[in-house]
Automatic annotation (TrEMBL):
Pfam families xrefs: FAD-oxidase_C (PF02913), FAD_binding_4 (PF01565)
Keywords per UniProt: FAD, Flavoprotein, Oxidoreductase
Organism: Anaerosporomusa subterranea
SUPFAM superfamilies the record matches: FAD-binding/transporter-associated domain-like, FAD-linked oxidases, C-terminal domain
Keyword Nuclease listed: no
Protein name stated in the entry: Glycolate oxidase subunit GlcD
Named cofactor requirement(s): FAD
Taxonomic lineage of the native organism: Bacteria, Bacillati, Bacillota, Negativicutes, Acetonemataceae
Source species, domain of life: Bacteria
Annotated FAD-binding PCMH-type domain residues: 40-219
MF terms in GO: FAD binding; oxidoreductase activity
Protein family (similarity comment): Belongs to the FAD-binding oxidoreductase/transferase type 4 family.
């Protein structure tokens, strides 16, 4: 517990109304969007909602002085437990820091506070003909600070990249309250270590991001959106692989299996052929209408050779948005199919995507488990979801074995444990398998240098016995 006099110091900084310690408030910040059942829940001792960088720095100085754990939080949309305060302490929620500081049209950059929603960044830029491409499924409510902490991706990553590709500079509050600024608007910058990219994907373990300078690009003038149904999952995977080999670089290429289609149909008006076993939603965009139309025709030809059973082409922007709404509604629809869902975030080289899908199907069949497969097939990022009941003592061990074998297969194919959700607390057991012992030692050394007392988001990334606490 945090001493009353320390809580009062924090309230003197942020105001009485923004340092909350009621049971109800604390419970509201004890979980995120991950599939991690925690009993009893990990309640913070205090929820702090600063408004400025100066307030964040003052709170961190107090926390560091008293050795109080601090877990940063945006909208709580993370999938790996990154914002869950495992060691109590302070839940530092940056949702009040939501100012768009500057939209620099000349340099095509935007400067925002950490609590600005990703969707708001997109909308503000679009009004000026500019484009911020990263679009995680939670983009309507996730915050840019959280996106940076997790290096969030999204459906457009296949063509445009993920969050780190657009972060030019950061304002970061370190564990002791020191404020640093990294990067900037200059395109080229090799002044010392790349501290900007060090912070991206660090899951709040190295510092608290309070502001960001983001790179923008011109908004594409045209887009062509297609939905394709296939008689086999292999045919869908093959279509995406051949599409990329042909030279087409889609803005998005999303895969869904039959289980996903059934889940969507339960929750919204969505009809598909009885013979359909998989679906692709893909989009090409660009500056020339004829080129976009040509690429759409190429995709149709490739799909025909891979057993496509139905093809829908969006004729209007609204129809395109309606097709993408199907994909964005997928995660909660799949989650409703079973009491629990163990969903992963593996990523493999694009040429190995069909193979990892085949291996996952064999693994879940081996353990007699229900599952759904969907993901960003265009960039090799897959979200296999095991549909289960983890309270079943007979089923839970099979789920754990299946996940273990999925990760092993992923690493064997040259892949990674996480493409966009981070490690958090859900993949800690496997970090050493991915990075090797020496790699984990390097991570811990960086953590020790920036956070000697280990107060920033403790208990994340590596296992508890491997933490860097004194």
């Amino acid at each position: 517990m945090i001493a009353k006099e320390v809580i009062q110091k924090i309230r003197d900084v942020v105001g009485q109304a923004h340092a909350l310690d009621s049971d109800l408030d604390r419970f509201g910040y004890s979980y995120d969007a991950s599939f991690v059942p925690l009993f009893p829940p990990s309640l913070p001792d205090l929820v702090v909602r600063p408004r400025t960088t100066e307030e964040v720095a003052a709170v961190m100085k107090i926390a560091n002085e008293h050795g109080i754990p601090v877990t940063a939080r945006g909208a709580g949309s993370g999938r790996t437990g990154g914002s869950i305060p495992l060691q109590d302490g302070i839940s530092l929620c940056l949702d009040r820091m939501k100012t768009i500081i500057e939209l620099d049209e000349k340099n095509m950059m935007i400067t925002v506070e950490a609590g600005v929603r990703t969707g708001d960044i997109y909308n503000v830029c679009a009004q000026k003909g500019l484009f911020y491409p990263p679009d995680p499924a939670s983009f309507k409510y996730s915050t840019i600070g959280g996106n940076i902490a997790e290096n969030a991706g999204g459906m457009r990553a296949v063509k445009y990249g993920v969050t780190h590709n657009f972060v030019m500079g950061l304002e970061v509050v370190l564990a002791d309250g020191t404020v640093i600024n990294t990067g900037g608007k200059s395109i080229k910058n090799v002044t010392g270590y790349n501290l900007t990219q060090l912070m991206v994907g660090s899951e709040g373990t190295l510092g608290i991001v309070t502001k960001a300078i983001l790179r923008l690009i011109p908004m594409p003038k045209y887009r062509n959106t297609l939905l394709l149904m296939f008689s086999t999952l292999d045919g869908a995977c093959g279509t995406i692989h051949q599409m990329l080999q042909s030279g087409i670089v889609p803005a998005s290429a999303e895969l869904m299996d039959r289980t996903c289609l059934n889940a969507i149909a339960k929750n919204r008006k969505f009809e598909f052929p009885d013979t359909a076993q998989a679906c692709i939603i893909t989009e090409v965009d660009g500056a020339e209408e004829y080129e976009i139309k040509k690429q759409g025709e190429q995709i149709e030809t490739i799909a025909q050779a891979n057993g496509v059973v139905e093809l829908r082409v969006a004729k209007t922007a609204q129809e395109a948005d309606d097709l993408w709404a199907i994909r964005r509604a997928l995660s909660p629809a799949v989650g409703a199919l079973a009491p629990d869902r163990v969903s992963e975030d593996i990523s493999v080289p694009r040429n190995e995507f069909p193979e990892i899908v085949r291996r996952i199907r064999k693994i879940v069949d081996k353990y007699n488990l229900d599952f759904a497969v969907y993901g960003h097939a265009g960039d090799g990022n897959l979200h296999p979801s095991i549909l289960c009941d983890m309270s079943d003592p007979e089923q839970a061990p099979r789920v754990h074995k299946a996940v273990e074998e999925m990760f092993a297969a992923t690493l064997e194919l040259g892949g990674t444990l996480s493409g966009e959700h981070g490690i958090g607390i859900t993949k800690q057991h496997y970090l050493k398998d991915a990075l090797g012992e020496a790699g984990v030692v390097v991570l811990k050394s960086i953590k020790k240098a920036l956070d000697p007392k280990g107060i920033l988001n403790p208990g994340k990334m590596w296992l508890e016995e491997e933490t860097v606490h004194d």
